[in-house]
């Protein structure tokens, strides 16, 4: 029997763009699927199809056992959604918005009030609770939108990049609410650009790129797929980065990656300790001084790099740690750029 969220061969095109190019997944009831992928991968499109906002060109999807094309109204009644198309009423206060959602879902007046107060506190909106939402900053609106999606616990929930733009404290608060929701039996599909988030919250992960699922499994299974360990090193002199990179490229078993500001380089190393010794000898022979070197287990970032040829950090950098308009100009510019191509 298909799970609570089921997709088979979903295709959706916009002009020449194949936003979804044959996507399949099957999410067992009560579990969390993390849809992981860079900007433009097709994550939001998948969520929009599954939540009945758009119809697929072909393929089939079921949510809570209901076909999303044949029974959109019934599907909508069994899902919750938070994301890039939220319904917050600007002219109501934060508290009124949340109470209204509660009443829409038939909570008693008293329960709606209690749930609203609880969520306002969790998302650190107490101080702004009685101001109209139109006075809220971007970060506050984002939190209100998330709170609104969490007023009641629907059987199936979709969250499209729920923590993009949240600061660490609010991200943590949201993770806790999500864990409670899932413990209560809700099935969740979550999209994210943050590997750490998928690692933490998802039971299974589907890595999406160019409208296709290019890998799937638990976080551990994905890490095992990259084949063995990773050699990671920090060069002492910035000027030695190209030399060290060349050595790793030659001796390693895959694409090298570099974090420029920490002078940290890494490469997959199926050869393990033997390769480590070789790298050390070669760097020494070339006069490359290193501050640190070691073998470590791959992270999801390594998985992502080996699958897509670029790090998730490249993608997420523009939106990380941004909250309430305090973003640096670089981050703000990058965010505007990524939103522009939606
Ligand atoms: N309404 C639309 N019209 C035209 N192109 C779209 C539309 N929605 C999405 N796309 C394109 O489809 C691709 C996938 O987009 P999207 O699903 O938003 O990716 P993600 O959420 O993973 O960043 C992108 O190339 C995007 O530009
Ligand atoms: Mg998106």
From TrEMBL:
Residues 312-342 are annotated as: Disordered. It is found in: Cell membrane. Residues 5-235 form the ABC transporter domain. Residues 326-335 have a biased composition (Low complexity). Keywords: Antibiotic resistance, ATP-binding, Cell membrane, Membrane, Nucleotide-binding, Translocase, Transport. GO terms for biological process: daunorubicin transport; doxorubicin transport; response to antibiotic. InterPro entries: AAA+_ATPase, ABC_transporter-like_ATP-bd, ABC_transporter-like_CS, ABC_transporter_ATP-binding, DrrA, DrrA1/2-like_C, P-loop_NTPase. One of its GO terms (molecular function) is ATP hydrolysis activity. GO terms for cellular component: plasma membrane. Pfam families: ABC_tran, DrrA1-3_C. It is an enzyme of class 7 (translocase). It is a peripheral membrane protein. Its EC number is 7.6.2.2. Belongs to the ABC transporter superfamily. Drug exporter-1 (DrugE1) (TC 3.A.1.105) family. NCBIfam families: drrA. This is ABC-type xenobiotic transporter.
């Amino acid at each position: 029997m298909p799970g609570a969220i089921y997709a088979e061969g979903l295709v959706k095109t916009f002009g020449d763009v194949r936003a979804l190019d044959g996507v399949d997944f099957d999410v067992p009831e009560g579990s969390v699927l993390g849809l992981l992928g860079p900007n433009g991968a097709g994550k939001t499109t998948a969520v929009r199809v599954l939540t009945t906002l758009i119809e697929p060109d072909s393929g089939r999807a079921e949510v809570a056992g209901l076909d999303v094309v044949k029974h959109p109204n019934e599907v909508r009644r069994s899902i919750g959604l938070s994301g890039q198309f939220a319904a917050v009423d600007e002219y109501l206060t934060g508290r009124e918005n949340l109470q209204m959602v509660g009443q829409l879902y038939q909570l008693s007046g008293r329960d709606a009030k209690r749930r609203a107060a609880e969520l306002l506190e969790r998302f650190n909106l107490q101080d702004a609770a009685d101001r109209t939402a139109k006075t809220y900053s971007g970060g506050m609106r984002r939190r209100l939108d998330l709170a609104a999606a969490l007023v009641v616990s629907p059987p199936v929930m979709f969250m499209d990049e729920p923590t993009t733009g949240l600061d660490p404290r609010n991200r943590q608060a949201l993770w806790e609410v999500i864990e409670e929701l899932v413990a209560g039996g809700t099935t969740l599909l979550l999209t994210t650009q943050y590997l750490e988030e998928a690692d933490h919250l998802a039971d299974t992960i589907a890595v999406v790129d160019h409208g296709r699922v290019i890998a799937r499994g638990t976080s551990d299974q994905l890490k095992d797929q990259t084949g063995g360990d990773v050699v990671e090193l920090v060069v002492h002199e910035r000027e030695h980065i190209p030399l060290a990179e060349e050595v790793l490229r030659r001796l390693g078993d895959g694409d090298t990656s570099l974090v420029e500001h920490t002078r940290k380089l890494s490469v997959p190393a199926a050869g393990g300790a033997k390769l480590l010794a070789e790298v050390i000898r070669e760097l020494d022979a070339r006069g490359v001084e290193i501050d640190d070197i070691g073998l470590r287990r791959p992270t999801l970032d390594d998985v992502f790099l080996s699958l897509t040829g670029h790090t998730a950090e490249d993608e997420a950098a523009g939106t990380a740690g941004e909250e309430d308009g305090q973003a640096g100009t670089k981050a703000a510019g990058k965010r505007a750029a990524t939103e522009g191509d939606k």
